[in-house]
């Protein structure tokens, strides 16, 4: 039975190559990884990296912090990349009001363009949301959400989680859910429906406890999964099996391709 990392940045790691990260992941029984672009250059690289490894897929898009770069020409390139066989999702896109690198208006315009692209190409939509849940959910409702929506590095409160569950959005948890000061997030994670639960690292960021202080990589995703299983009061094997099924559903993949990529 495998582990899955639904959101990592294999090309952002400053200490380990993509080869080394994939080797470490395989040794930790991580079968499937989705490496995510945040701008035109990194999205192009994500496609190239995913194309080299069985079980590694790509997501392409412009991060909300870089939304000022989501020009028509850049979005045209993202659309071209999103049609590559290695690509399973559009994103990460969304809203980030914690930082002010891009204005809310720039972020909203980019977010709406990504939603439209995901719908037209029948790709999953990977959403980054930080301190902007009200507007994120409003825009999704305004535009009409794609069939498959993943809330990456979920950070919402119970009301947001209930809204996402009602809408059928998958909620993906990263290493920060293991932090000792993340009690509210842990309580929310405990109640997420099992069929909407995903795991990720967001590596090289958000390294889980007890490895904080080291750069993250996909081999650490089992730590997050075991922690989630504990919060949910479930056997680890049950959660592992569910997340394989959920990943297949969330990204339009065959279950066999997630469990045993070839």
Description of the molecule:
This protein is an alpha/beta fold and 262 residues long. The chain has a single domain, classed as Metal-dependent hydrolases (TIM Barrel, Alpha-Beta Barrel), CATH 3.20.20. Helix content is 43%, strand content 18%. It is built from 10 helices and 8 strands. An 8-stranded parallel β-sheet has the order 1-2-3-4-5-6-7-8. It starts with a strand and ends with a helix.
Structural class: alpha/beta
CATH topology: TIM Barrel
* Element-level helix/strand string: EHEHEHEHEHEHEHEHHH
Radius of gyration, rounded? 17 Å
Q: Please estimate the helix content.
A: 40-55%
CATH superfamily heading:
Metal-dependent hydrolases
Give structural attributes.
8 strands; alpha/beta; TIM Barrel; 43% helix; globular; 262 residues; eight-stranded parallel beta sheet; single chain
């Amino acid at each position: 039975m495998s582990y899955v990392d639904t959101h990592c940045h294999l090309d952002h790691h400053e200490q380990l190559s993509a080869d080394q990260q994939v080797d470490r992941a395989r040794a930790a029984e991580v079968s499937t990884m989705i490496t995510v672009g945040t701008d035109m250059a990194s999205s192009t690289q994500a496609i190239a990296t995913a194309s080299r490894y069985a079980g590694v897929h790509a997501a392409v898009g412009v991060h909300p912090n870089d939304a000022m770069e989501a020009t028509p020409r850049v979005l045209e390139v993202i659309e071209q990349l999103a049609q590559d066989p290695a690509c399973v999702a559009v994103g990460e896109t969304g809203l980030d009001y914690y930082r002010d690198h891009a204005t809310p208006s720039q972020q909203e315009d980019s977010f709406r363009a990504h939603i439209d692209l995901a719908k037209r190409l029948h790709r999953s939509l990977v959403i980054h949301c930080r301190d902007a849940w009200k507007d994120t959910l409003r825009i999704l409702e305004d535009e009409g959400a794609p069939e498959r929506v993943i809330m990456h590095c979920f950070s919402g409160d119970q009301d947001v989680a209930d809204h996402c569950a009602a809408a059928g959005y998958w909620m993906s948890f990263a290493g920060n859910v293991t932090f000792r000061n993340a009690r509210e997030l842990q309580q929310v994670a405990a109640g997420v429906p099992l069929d909407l639960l995903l795991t990720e690292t967001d590596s090289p960021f958000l390294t889980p406890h007890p490895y904080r202080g080291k750069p993250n990589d996909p081999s650490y995703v089992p730590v997050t999964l075991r922690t989630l299983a504990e919060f949910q009061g479930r056997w680890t094997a049950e959660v592992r099996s569910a997340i394989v099924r959920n990943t297949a559903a969330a990204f339009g993949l065959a279950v066999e391709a997630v469990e045993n990529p070839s």
